[in-house]
Write a structure and sequence with these properties.
The protein is α/β, with parallel strands linked by helices. The protein has seven helices and six strands; from the N terminus they run βαβαβααβββααα. The chain has one domain: UDP-N-acetylmuramoyl-L-alanine:D-glutamate ligase. Helices cover 48% and strands 11% of the residues. Strands 1-2-3-4-5-6 form a six-stranded mixed sheet. α5 crosses α6 and α5 runs parallel beside α7. The longest helix has 23 residues.
């Protein structure tokens, strides 16, 4: 049986660097060079916005990538990107998607720049551990690399990440698991999804 069309390889670029508060001029130059390469090569880009501390103030960096970005902020990062506290999560995620020309997944809310919105009903409080959002960004990037569109990758990546957290919480308890433990659960969730 042939693989679904969204599982075909494509080119995706992902990058991480330190928190914006500690971003040095060298890191900002590095960020800009990578963004330029990504823009020139028509690649998709997935990142956690903490890594993109320069994004809100530099539209010349994100405008060329409009339509190819997937952002995975947690609620604190979403507030920094919005410049205000979160109100209605679904509306705020939709605002971010429109502002940055991206698919955005934050907590259980997902929005694409074309106006589509989704909610993921899975997920566990244990996902609020250090590094968990990086696992989410990796899952989304993997799906993008296999040919999924922005919104599809954000939805399935968010679902896989949340389901992996549910599976892990059922086995080891609701708190105390590490983000790296989610990695072992992702392939199992993907297989179950395709079953």
């Amino acid at each position: 049986m042939p693989a679904p069309s969204w599982l075909t390889p494509s080119r995706v670029l992902t990058q991480s660097w330190s928190d914006p508060a500690s971003t040095t001029p060298t890191k900002r130059r590095h960020c800009y060079r990578i963004w330029r390469r990504c823009s020139a090569r028509r690649r998709s880009w997935c990142s956690t916005p903490t890594r993109l501390g320069v994004l809100p103030g530099l539209p010349q960096m994100y405008e060329p990538l409009r339509g190819r970005l997937v952002l995975t902020p947690n609620s604190g990062e979403a507030e920094r990107l919005l410049g205000t506290e979160l109100g209605d999560l679904e509306d705020d995620v939709s605002t971010l998607a429109d502002r940055f020309g991206a698919a955005v997944t934050c907590d259980n809310a997902i929005a694409d720049m074309d106006g589509r919105q989704w909610l993921v009903s899975t997920g566990h409080v244990g996902l609020a551990s250090s590094g968990s959002n990086d696992v989410l960004a990796g899952a989304v990037t993997g799906l993008l690399a296999r040919g999924a569109g922005r919104g599809q990758a954000a939805c399935w990546g968010t679902h896989l990440h949340a389901s992996a957290g549910d599976r892990l919480a059922a086995r080891v308890g609701p708190l105390g698991f590490l983000a790296r433990e989610l990695l072992d659960e992702l392939p199992l969730e993907l297989v179950q999804l395709h079953a």
